[in-house]
Write a structure and sequence with these properties.
With about 400 residues, the protein is α/β, with parallel strands linked by helices. The protein is built from 12 helices and 23 strands.
């Protein structure tokens, strides 16, 4: 995609990555991803808002060259966030842009050298709400720490009311047939935005809500994130979704069932649970933990108030794929404010206690009773499953 004007003298100069299989070497990029970067051209100089992944450095520099005829005019490269998908190309850009200095937060300046070895005399530290005037284009810098690193900020272009929002409001998916929300299939990109949120940002929901509250005081007409569509027709749509996804009681009518089954016997218990919950008019989403990537499980968890886990013990431990997703839940702290039910099937060693401890550390509230059962439940175990189902239904109707 060629450079595109967002408004007069503001250009998208990003790239699309269709090669990378996994974002952060963790999350599937089935449809690629965009690295959005921007050029803001004022009367007195130019600022670049972030760069791109190092592998696309020369494609990026070529796009900048199309909109900035003389690289000596480039005064600043704004570092909203230090991760290499945003700034892998920055060291190369600095070599070609002799007058450019990096603009970052105080925390960013402390981290910058360790990642990129940029000389300190090429770094400008800005405080919250500091401004840079490019001549008719004024950049205001707004601290948004822990979205999703401690140094993160966003940049607001005052005259054009554009928020360059960094990883906030971003999405997986390369920009295939357009750049703006009114040019693209937004049903697809909203699904990918939810998955991106759950994978990258979900641990920091308090910081998301703090940032949204801070940004709501600003008149924003366009949101230009670092990944995915630029929102010009309805910027509030993605902001409202971020607020929704940051609240644990997103949808009390929605239940996520995550299960593992070594020989298929546990699936009979899953079917029983799912059938009963659907008879209560609950929306049930299922994931087989052996087949579904954690990226998609997290995405569905973000919109669910209750999660039900059904899994077998394995070598006196938690079934490995379930163990893996529980560790990710714990790392991402996605259980805060949410409920979880546990059904552990076993032949000779229950691991329900281990799972309970991990889920408590992830922030979940445990729905009682925690069920420990043989793969084919006996009468007493069936009663416990029924009691658990009644508890789930009761919580969903609170």
């Amino acid at each position: 995609m060629r450079p595109r004007a967002i408004v007069d003298n503001v250009y998208w100069v990003g790239v699309n990555d269709y090669i990378k299989d996994l974002f952060e070497s963790l999350w599937p990029l089935t449809f690629g991803i965009s690295y959005n970067a921007y050029a803001v051209i004022g009367r007195d100089g130019v600022a670049l808002i972030d760069t791109v992944d190092e592998r696309y450095a020369y494609e990026y520099i070529g796009k900048v060259k199309e909109v900035v005829d003389d690289f000596s005019k480039i005064r600043y490269i704004v570092v909203n966030h230090l991760e290499p998908d945003h700034h892998g190309a920055t060291s190369i850009a600095l070599e070609l842009m002799p007058n450019a200095k990096l603009v970052t937060t105080s925390m960013g300046s402390r981290i910058l050298y360790s990642i990129y070895r940029v000389p300190k005399d090429r770094v400008v530290v800005v405080k919250d709400s500091d401004k840079i005037d490019l001549g008719g284009k004024t950049l205001r810098f707004i601290y948004t720490p822990w979205l999703h690193w401690p140094e993160t900020m966003v940049t607001y272009l005052e005259e054009d009311k554009i928020l360059f929002s960094c990883d906030a409001f971003g999405s997986y998916g390369a920009l295939q047939n357009g750049l703006f929300d009114d040019e693209l299939d937004m049903d697809f990109y909203i699904e990918e935005a939810r998955r991106y949120f759950s994978n990258i940002v979900a641990k920091y929901t308090k910081n998301v809500l703090d940032a949204v509250k801070k940004l709501e005081k600003i008149d924003i007409e366009i949101i230009a994130p670092s990944h995915g569509p630029i929102y010009r027709s309805d910027p509030n749509r993605i902001v409202d979704l971020y607020k929704k996804w940051s609240q644990p009681n997103v949808d009390k009518n929605r239940v996520l069932v995550v299960y593992g089954s070594m020989y298929g016997r546990g699936e009979a218990i899953v079917d029983r649970i799912v059938d009963r919950l659907r008879k209560e008019n609950l929306l049930v989403v299922e994931h087989n933990v052996s087949l579904s990537h954690p990226s998609y499980i997290l995405s569905d968890l973000i919109e669910s108030y209750i999660t039900v886990l059904v899994y077998p013990s394995y070598d006196a431990g938690i079934f490995p794929y379930m163990d893996s997703i529980l560790r990710i839940f714990q790392l991402k702290q996605v259980g805060i404010g949410r409920y979880v039910a546990i059904v552990n099937t076993f032949a000779w060693a229950s691991t329900a206690k281990q799972a309970t401890e991990m889920l408590l550390k992830a922030g979940f509230k445990i729905i009682e009773p925690v069920v420990e059962t043989k793969a084919i439940p006996d009468e007493e175990e069936n009663k416990k499953i029924e009691e658990l189902l009644n508890s789930i239904i009761s919580i969903s109707k609170q």
